[in-house]
TrEMBL record:
GO terms for molecular function: transferase activity, transferring alkyl or aryl (other than methyl) groups. Pfam families: SQS_PSY. This is Phytoene/squalene synthetase. It comes from Microbacterium proteolyticum. It comes from the Bacteria. InterPro entries: Isoprenoid_synthase_dom_sf, Squ/phyt_synthse.
Amino acid sequence: MRTARTGLELYSQTADDAAAAVINRYSTSFGIATRLLGARPRPHVRNVYALVRVADEIVDGPAHDAGLTPEGERAVLDGLENEVMDAIACGFSANLVVHAFARTARECGIGADLIAPFFASMRTDIDTAAHDDLSHDAYVYGSAEVVGLMCLQVFLNAGMSAPARPAADLVDGARRLGAAFQDVNFLRDLADDADRLGRDYLDGAADDERRTAVLDRIDADLAAAASVIPHLPPDCRAAVTTAHDLFAELSRRLRSSPAGAPRVRVPDGVKATLAARALLGRPPKGSRS
């Protein structure tokens, strides 16, 4: 009979549970996809998502609603990054979400090369209102592509004896899937980003021609990502396929909706169908396989 968890093991499990609560509260789409992961990578992906969400909330409204100035938001964000790096170095944090992420980073080989660009993009949200193509690409790399690379580190290295370097095609696929997710969300939230946050991430994508160009880029990124999903470990493929197909469906619905239409969403029944399709081993939508 297994003895009850105590000490660090109990604390780390509690931290993982806290991270799971974050993703379950904030994202039905990623929550569904994450539940399809095998037991090996699942808690680690939740840990990555939770840290990303907490950082995002510092710059996307809740901190402002609590009365923080932009300078205050920057100080909190800087403190969070420092706490993350300290926790990775020592293996412990009094912040449950940070502790969970640090545990994942230590096991899966997520380092400053991915963490620093993420926090740099989050800082951009504090004082940058509009992006051109160059600043958009830099922002998306830090805010989304590196998150895809963090998840790739989890897929390949969770539960392994030592972190391995991912193949170039998997790196490209992870980056392009992250970029597609981010651009879809930019299009979905175009009005809210402009009205509530005063931001324009897509350099005038309310214009039909510009909007079509963004959707074409999204679909190209999704197609490139789909081609490498079969190269992922088997216990990750259904989850990544589901996430891919949910965003492919969002892209399709955005293309058939005019700019300014209500926020596009995928009905729960369609989400369930896409998840079932992935569980049956069907290839990602848009895949040539």
